[in-house]
Amino acid sequence: MSRHHVSIRPRRRSPLDVLFMGGCGEIGMNLTLYGSEDRWIAIDCGMMIHQELPGSPLQVPDVEALRQRGITPSALVVTHGHEDHIGAIVWLWPRWGCPIWASPLAAAMLRHRFSQHGLDTGVIQVFQPGDAFEIEPFGVRTLGVTHSIPESCALLITVGKHRLLHTGDWKLDSQPLLGPRIDEALFRGLAPIDLVVGDSTNATVSGHSASEGSVAQALASAVAKCTGRVVVSCFASNLARIHAAGLAARGSNRRVVLAGRAMQRMVQIAKSCGYLDAFPLPVPLKDAGYLPREEVLLIATGSQGEPGAALSRMAQGRHMELELEAGDTVIFSSKIIPGNERAIASLVSALRQRQIEVLDESEHPELHASGHPARDELRTFYGWIKPRYLLPVHGTEEHQRAHLALAHELGIEGDLSPRDGDWLRWDGQRIELVTRLELAPRLIEQRRSDQRRDSRPALALVLPVVHDESGWSRVGRLIVDPPLGVEIDEYVLGDWLDERLVDQHARNTRELRESLLDALGHWLFDHGPRVARIHLDIVEVAP
């Protein structure tokens, strides 16, 4: 009797395509696509600001090559709300029209921007960090990480037999000011990971990134020693730092003033999402000049030397509502983004010429903490998840090479430092370069074309609302930004809007905005203020 030998070959995994459209070989403008079975998902969609060019235009990823190849993502998933991860969405999403998945805070930021640009906010889907959802053929599990903005997430992406971890921005912070610490047991439970697409920003930095809690203590100590006004300048989306500045103001018996529209809006959105509950009630910027200098702490935009930001205008003595004086102090609580060195040096020089004391990271490193992992944190984290292969992203070539070298020390495979435009393919064993897309810089002027054509005064309003079974209602404070010389009582206007909202049956914020705009124009006409245009931003808050 003959014996038949049956040989069963293991089934080969379907390949996973990884396409980098931004954030590789540079810091900022993050956009990554994952593809399988001709279906794609996009992760983040950020921008960069070019301070060295006239008008400081925005640069967004070049997605024309995607259109030429018939690639349209089925969904866009957002890891967190920083500009280098969400700043290009309003410009590029209209090409895709896909659902957007974001945490409550990032979703609120996007709803505000979509309303501002007349886009449909109904496409924005909300997840809580820790949630999992399906975007066929992908499974996505969100994993909370610590960063300088709450609700930051890494993403565990599964498709077929592939398991990859897209880390987003993260750090191991023992004292986060907002949000919980990272859950070690959760990440240990993921091991082993096939492929990690990891943050390289601080791969050249030894040791451990400082905690936001330690920065809060350093800020409080520095502010307590100041005698004149104090300006703390940071990114508007760095909520941990804004919270720390508020704590420093309270500890030194100073009143908080928010300088810069982006700063005011971010604080309003954060409060509407349940953050900054203990933040001091801000004093309007127009009233700050009447307070004793030693009782004022301003939190201002402009830490990167942006020419139109509040801090730059104060440094040049051309701010309409407040002038800094000799003996005041400006604290830069931020890191210099590569490319902004000249703009920041010019800003610091202008401040010092006015005999304003400047405290920055170069001489006072304790006043800033990076939101990204240094080498010891990478070692610890990779010890938890035990990745087999690394693709280093979010950094310059130097950062990526250092990240790969560290991975090799830990026994992790990897030999590619991807660049923007690289189309890679992972078969479960190795990664190969399929092709390299030709990308061109895409610049967008920060002023909209209608603003360039019409220089007449405009009224800007930010209206936070909630929608539940009883209808629409306002939540939080109405932000009113009238043109110079126009006085509007925000409390009277707020009461009128509250009455109008009761009768609204709009299905979404776009319809609500259209319904309110006409009535708002008539109210302004009847009550005296004359403005040429109204910019109404409606921010929907999850009930």
Low-confidence stretches: 4-10, 448-456
Helix run count: 16
Largest sheet: 8 strands, mixed
Range of strand content = 15-25%
Mean pLDDT level? 88
Structural class: alpha/beta
Task: Quote the distance from N terminus to C terminus.
Answer: 75 Å
Number of E strands: 26
Estimate the global geometry from the Cα principal axes: globular
Q: How are the strands of the largest sheet arranged?
A: 8-7-6-3-2-1-20-21
Task: Determine Rg (CA atoms, Å).
Answer: 25 Å
Helix content: 25-40%
Description:
α6 runs parallel beside α7 (239-251). The chain starts with 15 loop residues before the first strand and ends with a strand. It is globular and about 70 Å long. It has 16 helices and 26 strands. The strands form 5 sheets. The protein has an 8-stranded mixed beta sheet. The chain has a 6-stranded mixed beta sheet with strand order 9-10-11-12-13-19, with helices on one face. By secondary structure, the chain is of the alpha/beta class. Mean pLDDT is 88; it is low at 4-10 and 448-456.
Question: Can you give keywords for this protein?
Answer:
alpha/beta; 8-stranded mixed beta sheet; 6-stranded mixed beta sheet; 16 helices; 23% strand; globular
Nutshell version of this structure?
The chain is 29% helix and 23% strand. It is built from 16 helices and 26 strands.
Topology, pairings included?
Elements: E1 16-22, E2 31-36, E3 39-43, E4 48-49, E5 58-60, H1 64-68, E6 75-77, H2 83-86, H3 89-96, E7 100-102, H4 104-116, E8 124-126, E9 132-135, E10 138-144, E11 153-159, E12 162-166, H5 184-188, E13 195-199, H6 212-224, E14 230-233, H7 239-251, E15 255-259, H8 261-272, H9 285-288, E16 296-300, H10 310-315, E17 329-332, H11 341-353, E18 357-359, H12 375-385, E19 389-393, H13 397-409, E20 422-426, E21 431-436, E22 442-444, H14 449-453, E23 458-468, E24 471-474, E25 479-481, H15 490-502, H16 509-526, E26 533-541
Parallel strand pairs: 3-6, 6-7, 7-8, 12-13, 13-19, 14-16, 14-17, 15-16, 17-18, 23-26
Antiparallel strand pairs: 1-2, 1-20, 2-3, 4-5, 5-22, 9-10, 10-11, 11-12, 20-21, 23-24, 23-25
Helix pairs in contact: 6-7
